[in-house]
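User: Sequence recovery, please. Input:
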């Protein structure tokens, strides 16, 4: 019997890049195909099982399965088979930046049709995958609103701040409706609402931009979560139990210098304006007091192992402050191409090597060694047993490790 039973069967999670946006000149992207996950799903999930990871973020491609109100979920079957064979449960991403071609995201129809799709998706996957069941209705609402509403990178290709605000509201309305539809199918389903955890500072020579940078850090970062939790726009129907689990995405480029036009500039390593990740996690915890995970995190290239080391130190410092941190998602499990250049990012647990058109998986051994070190430090499994769902993760082990190690927040963590 666990003293502090966790929500998930393992503390370490992972996931697969599954974007399906309309990109650039209206080209529908499919990152599951671009990374070869569609062809290597069974091997990809076996690799996670060997690493002691029993939970993975996995996508259902709304633009592909929604046939104008009827649904074809056959595309999902190979992934369900692969997960079941490796005893891994999914957090289903139901809208990962992509929506059907015939929908206007600013319309009431978008909300209604998304809710119907969420209900249909839950009806399909719940009986086919061993529970508990987890969903992310709309991935990264805040970032989605920026890249598709203000920067014009993806559909609906808007380029104004006002449109970014409108898109965020529309996506929040849809996400809330989606949660309610899913829980009509499975009242016990858990929701993980994922968004970047960021900090924005003014340029040193632009004190006039301090207020704008502060607004992005303390208001914009949290607005989508606020709406889903019912703190803002309560007429949309949000509530704390709809927000449920806060998934905070953490990357080095999440601490930025403000730019009035276009994306902000990431702070370089060693910049004295970088804040400890522990403090940023605590800010989200104090705002919602909901269970939290780090919804995505990874380093780059040869820095992946040291990145995980720093994130673990900051996370345990946060746990020692009383933050209910339920897990850390090493994302992605398999490398992904840069959306703009197509070059491999080298941020996965495994890199890929193109061998005559087949994207062979190449594990990053330093990254895996660091994962193994922390699994042992936290008394976590290093490989899944016959029934990884028989007992929930023992969070008391994580809390005890945090108290024993007494990690201190570090401004140079990244």
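Assistant: Recovered sequence (414 residues):
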């Amino acid at each position: 019997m666990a003293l502090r039973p966790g929500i998930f069967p393992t503390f370490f999670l992972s996931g697969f890049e599954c974007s399906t946006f309309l990109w650039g000149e209206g080209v529908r992207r499919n990152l599951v195909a671009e990374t070869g996950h569609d062809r290597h799903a069974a091997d990809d999930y076996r690799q996670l099982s060997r690493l002691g990871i029993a939970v993975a973020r996995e996508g259902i491609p709304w633009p592909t399965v929604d046939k104008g109100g009827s649904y074809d979920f056959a595309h999902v079957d190979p992934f369900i088979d692969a997960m079941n064979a490796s005893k891994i449960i999914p957090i289903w991403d139901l809208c990962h930046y992509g929506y059907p071609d015939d929908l206007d995201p600013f319309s009431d129809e978008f909300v209604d049709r998304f809710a119907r799709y969420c209900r249909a998706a839950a009806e399909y996957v719940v009986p086919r995958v061993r529970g508990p069941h987890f969903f992310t209705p709309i991935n990264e609402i805040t970032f989605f609103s920026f890249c598709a509403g203000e920067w014009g990178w993806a559909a609906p290709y808007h380029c104004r701040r006002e449109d970014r605000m409108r898109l965020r509201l529309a996506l929040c309305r849809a996400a809330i409706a989606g949660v309610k539809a899913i829980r009509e199918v499975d009242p016990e389903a858990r929701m993980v609402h994922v968004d970047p955890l960021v900090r924005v500072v003014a340029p040193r020579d632009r004190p006039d931009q301090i207020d704008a940078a502060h607004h992005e850090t303390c208001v914009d970062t949290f607005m989508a979560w606020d709406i889903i939790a019912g703190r803002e726009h309560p007429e949309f129907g949000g509530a704390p139990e709809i927000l449920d689990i806060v998934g905070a995405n953490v990357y080095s480029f999440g601490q930025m210098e403000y730019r009035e036009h276009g994306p902000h500039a990431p702070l370089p390593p060693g910049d004295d304006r970088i804040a400890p990740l522990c403090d940023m996690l605590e800010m989200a915890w104090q705002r919602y007091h909901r269970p939290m995970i780090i919804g995505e995190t990874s380093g780059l290239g040869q820095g992946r192992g040291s990145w995980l080391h720093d994130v673990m130190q900051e996370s345990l410092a946060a746990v020692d402050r009383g933050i209910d941190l339920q897990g850390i998602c090493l994302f992605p499990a398999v490398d992904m191409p840069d959306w703009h250049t197509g070059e491999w990012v080298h941020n996965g647990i495994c890199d890929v090597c193109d061998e005559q058109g087949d994207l062979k998986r190449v594990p990053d051994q330093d990254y895996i060694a660091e994962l193994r070190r922390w699994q042992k430090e936290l008394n976590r499994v290093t490989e899944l047993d016959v029934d990884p769902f028989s007992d929930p993760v023992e969070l008391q082990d994580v809390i005890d490790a945090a108290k024993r190690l007494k990690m201190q927040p570090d401004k140079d963590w990244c």
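DSSP finds 13 helices and 15 strands in the chain.
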